[in-house]
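JOB MANIFEST
job_type = single_chain_structure
chain_count = 1
residues = 357
[input]
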Amino acid sequence: MKKNMLLACSALLLFSALFAFPKEMMDTSQTMLQMCLTTVIPSLFPFLAAVGLLLPQAQKTAAARFSPFMRYFFRSRGICALPLFLGFLSGYPMGAKVTETLYEKRLLTAQESRYLMTFVNLPSPLFVLGTVGTGFFGTPLWGYALLGAIWVSALAEGLIMRPFFTLPSSMQATEQVPTLPAASLSRTMEESVLVSLRISAFIIFFSLLQKGIFLWGSAFLSPAVFQQNTVFSALFGGLMEMTGGIAQLPQTTLSLRLQLSLAAGLLAFGSLSVAGQVKSVTATLPLPLWHYFLAKGLHGIFASGIMYLIFPIFSVQTEKALPAFFQITGNASMYPFCICSVGLISFVLTLWVLRQA
């Protein structure tokens, strides 16, 4: 009942904003649609397609090769390494998608799936290094610092949350992992396109909802509070859709240390838009929303704290030249190219590992 009421209020607010502020809402819609067509879909589709095709072949390799690592650190089976590494390297919501796929194929238990969802769903490294570090904060150095804070806090949360879940015994020398049937190319492509479009729809919807709230707030409540590039607008916007909120942080009056700490927290939390994306790709996963938000909230707090602590270490290096994997400043069209290139390289490396198995 509460969920339906919340959805009804969101729809009413969105409709009213579209009628009252058509130009502003249309501009926002066009901007976000262009971003999805030029960045989101080209970056997501290669990873979704590669994972769908490789997952049936990679499961036994992961179970055998990574079993000692997963047993020692996370008291989990080797198969759990797939969502861990793919979530760290691919970005939202790939960690959740791979976890849901393995659970649906009965390769993971419900407890394992819920445990993995506390720390394997992370932002894309390319987004953090290129868009946030280089684009928003002017240097890839801060991208590396943010990425390190997010990854370390995620691993720490995995270790901290380990005692709260009843995981299956993983002390056997070899794991018995059933073989998945080979993926159909046409079905994999179709599912990859649908998931990419679904995620894009969530990004556009929450961006429009955020814009509508700020327009109505400026008109009837307090223009000073709801104006752009304030601490409130950055935090509220980041909780709704993280990209827009983080982009406003460098324009606020906060110190750079606090800006980066808040950026790390928003990146780790992921926003309501990411939560909607995760929920849309984990339909069969027994994951209550309160469990997801608790885990992501803790991750955000840990990441902010770590970023605040390591800031002095990185700040002394800001004047020195630091090689970056991706220097994405003014040429946004290079972003999908870089993503696709990394996806292709990952595909080739994975095939090589499978051949060596």
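[summary]
The CA atoms of residues 18 and 25 lie 6 Å apart.
Residues 24-166+179-319+336-356 form one domain.
exit_status = 0
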